[in-house]
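Entry — protein

Goal — fold tokens:
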Amino acid sequence: MSDLETKPTLKECGGREDVSAEPALELTPGREVSIGDDRPVRRMLPTLGRRMVGPWCFLDHYGPDDIADGPGAQVAPHPHMGLQTVSWLREGEMLHRDSEGHTATILPGHLGLMTSGRGISHSEESPVPHARFLHGVQLWVALPDGARNGDPHFELHTELPRFEAPGVSGTVIMGEIDGARSPGQAYSPIAGADLTLADDVDVRLPLERDFEYAVVATEPGAVVDGVPVPIGSLLYLGCGRRDVHIRTEAASNLILVGGEPFAEKIVMWWNFVGRTSEEIAEARTQWQAEERFGVVHGYHAPRLDAPELPPTPLKPRGRVR
């Protein structure tokens, strides 16, 4: 899914100097943004409080939206570079088309994974007909320098590994958790999982000590290390953990993201991840000139224009501020 803010800001993220080796408990509220089709979403990454968790650099939670009487999601063709998009649905369906010729319908429990490499464009829409509700998360993974200029490609995985704990049913979206590994192609040490939690759970889930982690709630009711996690907030757990304590006050759902702290500094703007503001400006120019990012066929409306770049120069902000 695109970042469709009309005035996106340049952000410098990554690097390890601001990463504590100790566990943390930092609850950061997200912000509500519009993605351009009148559906507000809750943006948990990046925010002023936290810009990356491992290689994860973008996280939106949307819905549940009642789209029975409307078109649902309608995101016209737009570009990406230097990242992977991870589409994860709780309810509904999403029709994906991209400039490499892939067309796929993503359903709940399916992993739609698009690796942009040096550049790709795609569209996303609710198919016709579509289910009444649309609910899910959209995440981006920053590609390391050795992979960010590679060939673009798309993967659809309809069967993902699962793990179980008392009162917990987990699906591994990316990387490996508790011995279960996702088939999605990863380019950095990473972890991502959907945790379906029963009422009155009290459990500890194993984690990698060298990873940093965070959780977001797509349903209320979960308490993580004593901290209730409301919808629309990100609870950063830090590094150095062997496990995490989860209990519930009602049946709930959490998305767990983590990975080895991303060593490289990245620059994010609109739908581009690069290393310098000059790279970002060049990518914008090429998209506007209809170069580099290919053509998406089959979408019913014109492609998106890139916003104007901000007039002020890039100000390094690091991982957290």
Notes: The chain has one helix and 26 strands.
